[in-house]
Amino acid sequence: MRIIEKNTLNDTQGMRLTRMRFEAPAIARKALPGQFILLMVHEKGERIPLTIVETDAAAGTLTLIFQEVGHTTKLLGKKNVGDSLYSLVGPLGHPSEIPRNERVILVGGGVGIAEILPVARAVKAAGNHVVSVLGARTKDLLLLTREVGETSDRLLICTDDGSAGEKGLVTDVLKKLLAEPEPTHRIFCVGPVPMMRAVSETTRPSGIKTIVCLNTIMMDGTGMCGGCRLIEGGKARFCCVDGPDFDGHAVDFADLVQRQRRFREEEMKSLDHACRLEGTAAP
Predict the structure, then answer these.
(1) Would you say 174 and 107 are in contact if contact means Cβ atoms under 8 Å apart?
(2) Contacts of 228 (CB under 8 A, 6+ apart)
(3) What is the Cα–Cα distance from 192 to 215, expressed in whole angstroms?
(4) Hey, which of 131, 158, 162, 186 would disulfide with 166, CB 3.0 to 4.6 Å?
């Protein structure tokens, strides 16, 4: 899968956000909003999931946006236009369920804003009234505000430090929206796990359908390895084949957080030491 475009969206506080466009005609023809891919940078690397942000079926391309935080995403960030990946598999997962003629609130936090963009476009195209709430720690970490705004009837921004939009958390803005006379029928939420958990708890008393997109640790993408297991409604589910969208009111977030921390020590070691295989990987 050859890289045909690469852009740095922002590079601040040691958190670089990169957008890459790839030649992937088979995936571009089939992918729907909410689906994802699994990629390997080189033959001996790990597989990681990334949400498909945009596709162009005519050009045969797909776009990914990722934050360079772990070893594999940092390796991916070193790739340049003309380089290829060892593998890129997809589309995987179920497409997001797109309602019609509803008031829908989209909540995106951090890099989750990129993941919610394709859903925003699909929800708006289906005739819904779209209210988007985007949040980040500071204005420098906000992204795609113009693109999300173009597909929203209302765009509300908040930052932890008040450097852009309203000072506060996305849940502060969400509470105000839920208090408005116009009823809200559905909420899509993508972002850090603590944010998705807080949004789900905010909407729980009202019972408004709240969908969270979970991008958990994955290995094979078929449900066989069990690496992406989570608990929804007391039952074991697998993000790769049952998700990535789940009922935020039914997800066991405590279990999810614990499972997400399983390989933290190994990840830190991989960042602290040069990978012995990196120099031998095929380009």
Answers:
(1) yes
(2) 216, 217, 218, 219, 238, 239, 240, 243
(3) 10
(4) 158
For β-strands 61-67 and 54-56, DSSP reports them as: antiparallel
> Considering only CA atoms, which of 53, 60, 58 is closest in space to residue 27?
60
* pLDDT tens digits along 127-179: 999 999 999 988 888 889 999 999 999 999 999 999 999 999 999 999 999 99
**What are the backbone dihedrals phi and psi of residue 233, each rounded to the nearest 5 degrees, phi first?**
60, 30
CA of 230: how far to CAs of 95, 225, 234, 244, 253, in Å?
19, 13, 9, 11, 9
The position carrying tokens 């997001």 is 96
Mean confidence (pLDDT) of the chain: 88
SS3 state at 117: helix
pLDDT in tens, 197-226: 999 999 999 999 999 999 877 777 777 777
- Is the C-alpha dihedral spanning 134, 135, 139, 143 positive or negative? negative
In the chain the domains, ranked by start, together with CATH numbers, are 3-94 (2.40.30.10), 103-213 (3.40.50.80)
**Bridge partner residues of 22 (DSSP):** 3, 62
The answer to whether the CB of 215 falls within 8 A of the CB of 195 is no
